Amino acid sequence: MNLEYFIAKRIFFRQKKNTTTSIVNLAVAGIALGLSIMILSIAIVTGFKKEIQNKVIGFGSHIIIENLGTNSSFEAAPISKNQVFYSQLPKINGIKHIQRFATKAGIIKTKDAIEGTILKGVDTDFDWTFFQKYLEEGSVLKIDSSLRSNEILISRSIANILKIKIYDEINIYFIQEPPKVRKFKITGIYNTGLGEYDKMYLICDIKHIQRLNSWSSDKISGFEVLIDDFDKIDEMQNIVFSKAGNIFFDDGSKLNIKSIKETNPAIFEWLELTNMNVQIILILMTLVAGINMISGLLIIILERTNMIGILKALGANNLSIRKVFLYNSFFFIGKGFLWGNLIGIGLSLIQLSFNIIPLEPTTYYLTSVPINLNLTHILILNLVSMLIVFLMMLLPAILISYIEPIKAIKFN
Predict the structure, then answer these.
(1) CA–CA dist 385, 68 (Å, integer)
(2) Are strands 219-220 and 180-190 parallel, antiparallel or unpaired?
(3) H helices within 264-374, ranges in order?
(4) Do β-strands 180-190 and 79-80 pair in parallel, antiparallel, or remain unpaired?
(5) Rounded Cα gap, residues 368 and 53, in angstroms
(6) Rounded-to-integer distance, Cα 307 and Cα 411, Å
(7) What SS3 class is residue 74?
(8) Which pLDDT score, from 0 to 100, does residue 22 have?
(9) Is the bond preceding residue 179 a cis peptide, omega within 30 degrees?
(10) CB count, 10 Å around CB of 168?
(11) Which regions in the chain score pLDDT beneath 70?
(12) By the 8 A CB rule, do 337 and 379 touch?
């Protein structure tokens, strides 16, 4: 039998209720609290990033293919929808979907209000998964390949501003030469909570944009590419570029391949800043947990000074005695980590299931605190934190070598 382990187990499981035990339990509680905060921090921050990313991507996809001459005014230089890569890209591993789109700026005018907007035209290949998720009333559009639909999907924000409701008819004016107006029927109202985008986009049949711009039926603004893994967006952008980036048209123009991070740099830079907050929390909580356990172990060593002296008198060396206290501290660390995981994961699951903590959507773009429980993140967090705290335990264990047997036995 491992003698050091046996002694450590006896110390841990046969503790007497005294002041030392209370102090050590406080150290364990500090570890549990620190770990639970770290788990909640990672779950909330990664959940927040994931939700915001998904919403921005829902409006604009991961990768956009459009004419290189297109500017930021949403009045795109047209390209042909009949591209070779349209059928090739979906066959590539990692690319989920490709769809055609067209955009045009317009103004919605009612009796009481006026609002600028972007009309996004979609084709029969449009993936409605995102808008179906956030649909509050009505239904998504039914796009026919031959007939032009007058249905339109608007946001709750625009509906509230203009005081319009489902199945109302609205007029959208387009500032061009000559000016044009189109009447649409509201068949769906969505609400993503992403205020800036909700106030901007209306979804309609792409054939309206083509007619307003005097384009032929094969002209579009560009293509949207959806991928499976956001973390591989740079890699997938390079793959898309290899298929579509070297195509030149008769007028000398070519296609531009942009990722959602390039089209929305402010949002994604802001999201990246949240990583720094998490890193600071993780470092601080790990240090607090380590310092708590150093204090606890020092107190245990102080309380067991007589035992250390007796063990040395019986021939035990410093390394052997250190092992006893390191085993003992590992038991306390394990207890703290067990409770920390139970508290952190438990609170995360409660928020994930019941959305107990709400958020102001106009500020945070979300209605409640988001949670992303990732098993890999939790395992890595536990392993790294436990290793750091355990290594910190080596510092007080060194003090054992300075304890003299005779003085230790007489110590009271």
Answers:
(1) 49
(2) unpaired
(3) 265-303, 305-313, 318-354, 361-364
(4) unpaired
(5) 16
(6) 10
(7) coil
(8) 77
(9) no
(10) 14
(11) 1, 14-20, 69-74, 250-252, 400-412
(12) no
Burial of 412 (0-12, 13-18, 19+ CB in 10 A): exposed
Specify the residue for token string 């958020």.
359
Contact 345, 26 (CB under 8 A): no
Count Cα neighbours of 312 within 13 Å in the Cβ-side half-sphere.
Answer: 19
Per DSSP bridges, beta strands 151-155 and 180-190 are: parallel
Contact 338, 170 (CB under 8 A): no
Q: Quick one: CA torsion of 175, 180, 186, 187, rounded to 10 degrees?
A: -110
Give the burial string for 174-194 (b: 16+ CB within 10 Å, else e): beeeeeeebebebbbbbbbbb
Distance separating alpha carbons of residues 104 and 339, to the nearest angstrom: 56
pLDDT at 363: 80
Residue 402 has a pLDDT of: 64
Asked if 159 contacts 165 with a C-beta cutoff of 8 angstroms, the reply is yes
Is 140:188 a contact under the CB 8 Å cutoff? Answer: yes
d(C-alpha 116, C-alpha 175), whole Å: 11
Joined tokens for residue 410 = 């007489």
Contact 311, 92 (CB under 8 A): no
